[in-house]
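Board notes, transcribed. Complex of a protein with iron/sulfur cluster.
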Amino acid sequence: MTSEVYFGSIQQGRDAEFASLGAKLGKLLEHLDFSTIEKNDKVAIKMHLGFSDGYQTVPVFFVRRIVKAVKETGGWPFVTDNPTSIYNAVDRGYTQETCGCPLIPVAGVKDGYTKPVKVDFNKVKELDMGGVLHDADVLIDLTHAKGHANCGYGGAIKNIALGGYSGPSRWNKIHGIENVYPWWDAKKASPEHAQKLVESCPYSALRYDKEKHQLNIARFQCHYGNCTECIKADKDVGALNLQPEQFEAFQEFMAIAAQKVLDTFDDNKRFFINVALQITAHCDCVGLPQPVIVPEIGILASRDIVAVEQATLDLIKEKGLIESEIPPYFKHIKLDSGVDFSHPFARLWGPYKNPYLVTKHAEKLGMGQREYTLVEVLSPKKTMKMKPPKHVFERAPSFY
Ligand code: SF4
């Protein structure tokens, strides 16, 4: 048995409301089946509301519809995210009035209301899950699908894996996991060589701490595999040891962190919706408007987090990158390194940030399955045969 992933495409068979993405979202919610939400359940709609000027997130139009559908079950929805994104969400159009429900920080206003969860991954024993998310009865993981500098792709798993925890767990423990691997041999390199390595990096990913004689790497800026400039500069010294598993550790830990969040909800009270529109190279957290680098796709929904991620990644792969929109700061994007790029996002961010790794680890943890059946709702083929109602233009105000 494969998992079902319901899909509403941006493409429409008619220029009519019944063929549009709004109508398709309604169908997707019918398939998702909110009947397992019980009266008075507290329903956390976990989103990333963006940051600063980064407005390319899930349109509030869809949030309102989902909130309305939850209210019809007798549940009490609220939108949740990190405190800063909640606090300035109004700048990007999200308020209680526009969303239709309160916006509550995932770990309280000081990011300190947390619940410890046990993990055991590369010396990390505990993470602090957002207490507000932990308190909820139902999870709706409502995600904007986009690229990500650390792992190629940010989707449903990342939305709860990183977004489900307080700042210190998110940044120091989960993001910090890549740095637990030794990759720099200080004994082999002179300070001059370290400086040469820093200068070799076209992405400014390397920094040298002269006092400690320590080379540091910002892996989100590193495109290893696409770019190998520092490796070339290090050829006769061999002080660097960049390995795929150092990059993969982040994806494995994301899967673990997401699983811990899922474990706090009943199986039948977890819903996943990926909005694959306005797909940008960077995550929403960079707080910048960015070029859209993949053609518009639509919305995917499932009760299986692994299946919805796999299907979203496959559709992105099918569409491919819009070459003309790739920002010029991806300097090595056209370099033929002989590496098999498994996905457009791996091509963009480097092959060791293969976005499928997270679904592989999530499946291994039993969070769902990568095999899925895509069920398209109101497909263009179907809606082009449907008879549109007479279109009504608003010739005068209709709200009296
Ligand atoms: S592989 Fe390229 S991007 Fe990464 S640190 Fe080395 S030079 Fe910089």
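The mean pLDDT is 95. The chain has two domains: 3-177+248-383, 182-242.
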